[in-house]
Amino acid sequence: MGIGAEAVERCELWARPPFSEDSHALTRRYLTDAHRAAVRRLSIWMAAAGMQVQLDAAGTLIGRYEGTGPGKTLLIGSHIDSVSDAGAYDGALGVMLGLGCIAHLAKTGRRLPFAIELLAFGDEEGSRFPAAMIGSRALAGILREDVTRYVDADGVDLGQAMQDFGLNPILLPQAARDAKEILLYFEPHIEQGPVLEAENLPVGVVTGIAAQTRLLVRLEGVAAHTGTTPMHLRHDALAAASEAILALERIAVASAGALVATAGRIEAFPGLSNVIPAKVNFSVDLRAPLAGPRDAAEQEFRTELAAICARRGIGCKIEVAHRLAPCFCDPAAQQLLTAAIAAQGVTPRYLASGAGHDAMNVAALAPVAMLFIRCKGGISHNPAEHVTPEDAEIAAQTMLGFIEKLAENKGSLLF
Predict the structure, then answer these.
(1) Which residue, among 54, 148, 42, has the nearest Cα to 98 in the 3D structure?
(2) pLDDT surpasses 80 at 236
(3) Is residue 414 part of a domain?
(4) Per residue in 368-393, pLDDT tens?
(5) By the 8 A CB rule, do 206 and 305 touch?
(6) How many helices (H) does the chain have, and how many strands (E)?
(7) Do 203 and 283 lie in a common domain?
(8) Looking at the DSSP assignment, which residues form a beta bridge with residue 328?
(9) Is residue 288 part of a domain?
């Protein structure tokens, strides 16, 4: 079986229990039993591929394949958590392809001038706690806030979840790596968009990742009886939130393609049909290729939200869950990837990523590179997500070619 076919098979295996919390759809959230099962199985596969295995303080599984000398380390990785009702390939395919490439090197007895570490981040999606990319931020040394205070829908705080998983939250800072030791971070990932399929290309070179801001908005009105409270005397938090979300959409549409904005999660309390909503929490996700348009849109939204709340007599608090700068992939690494793709007989295609990836955090630590892999219909975060074994094999051979080109250059990105 080729590397690509094996990677696809393993992704499909992981779409079922015990690697999923749900028997009918893939859901694998950070620090759950499904995450634990995935870590255990991946640990076995890593060890069989000749890697030394450890779990860092943030729950990132790391497999190390030693090089021939004391050179820097190439990091290859992605995430193994998922959204709810997910597809099998988002994040996981990149990890499985990295695993297959390292297993191939070990099988052929190939050692390189640099070590390779395979990283399986446990939290990229933020689908359990109101924070995302905890593993890559910890690795890069940019995890500033106390994430242990975040609470999931069941009332479990992240600190307790870490302890239940066998981690010590006090040791989180120890996950940070030394930039002097890292050569490059390389992340293979499905495109999550339709461009490669539209152009009938199996893989593409990522040039950069959009700037992203995620806000948590909390509105507070007054609960009152729906039958006895006149419309002009209400302080309806849900009505205010609805107006604010439409304002967010209007701001994004008016940008003429310069940015996108989404309110993806909303909760209303007390959630009764005969009580005017007193409290509403909703999320705001803003993304743009450059930080300027994103920041301008955030300020415009904040201004409009303040006016809406003042007019309706609603209290408002906004918390920044994260604000990520745009990430630009290393130009030299892009050249090497381009050559590796061309060696497969494929026309190189350059794409920017509108989706966020762990690479944008690791960029604070080291140069980054990304390879996109075609997904059927451009569909992602959906059970219909699909990658063919043939495309996965081209991606694997491109990765091996890229690694060999780094080796020919003696582990340097300088030409």
Answers:
(1) 42
(2) yes
(3) no
(4) 999 999 999 999 999 999 999 999 99
(5) no
(6) 11, 14
(7) no
(8) 208
(9) yes
Question: With contact defined as beta carbons under 8 Å apart, do 115 and 65 qualify?
Answer: yes
Residue-level pLDDT at 412 = 67
Whether 348 contacts 341, CB under 8 Å? yes
- Give kind and range of the element (H or E) at residue 320: strand 315-324
Residue 76 makes CB contacts below 8 A (sequence gap 6+) with: 94, 98, 101, 102, 116, 117, 118, 119, 185, 186, 187, 188, 399
- The Cα 66–Cα 110 span in angstroms is 10
Q: Per the domain annotation, does 317 fall within a domain?
A: yes
Q: What rounded mean pLDDT belongs to the chain?
A: 95
C-alpha torsion 410→411→413→415, nearest 10: 0
Q: Which amino acid is it at 336?
A: L
| Residue 317: CATH number of its domain | 3.30.70.360
Is the pLDDT at 365 greater than 80, yes or no? yes
Short-list 108, 96, 85, 78, CA closest to 11: 96
How many beta carbons lie within 10 A of that of residue 20, not counting itself? Answer: 22
- The first and second tokens of residue 131, run together, are 């924070």
d(C-alpha 302, C-alpha 306), whole Å: 6
**Range from 77-81, 207-211, 224-228 carrying the lowest mean pLDDT:** 207-211
CATH number of the domain bearing residue 74: 3.40.630.10
Angstrom distances, CA of residue 125 to CA of 4, 79, 174, 297: 24, 8, 22, 23
The answer to whether residues 221 and 199 belong to one domain is no
Q: Which of 246, 178, 210 is nearest to 323 (CA)?
A: 210
Q: Is the pLDDT of residue 415 over 80?
A: no
Structural domain for 257, as ranges: 211-324
Per-residue pLDDT at 69? 83
Write out pLDDT tens, residues 302-322.
999 999 999 999 999 999 988
Both tokens assigned to 391: 């495309």
Can you give the length of the chain in residues? 415
Domain count of the fold of the chain? 2
E-strand ranges in 356-411 read 368-373
How confident is the model at residue 67, as a pLDDT? 95
197 shares its domain with 164: yes
Q: How many CB atoms are located within 10 Å of the residue 196 CB? A: 21
User: Which helix (H) or strand (E) element contains residue 251?
Assistant: helix 237-254
Q: For residue 4, give the H/E element and its range.
A: helix 3-13
Torsion of CA 298, 300, 304, 310, to 10 degrees: 80
Within 220-315, residue ranges assigned H as helices are 237-254, 291-312
Give which of 141, 290, 280, 148 is closest to 213, Cα–Cα.
290
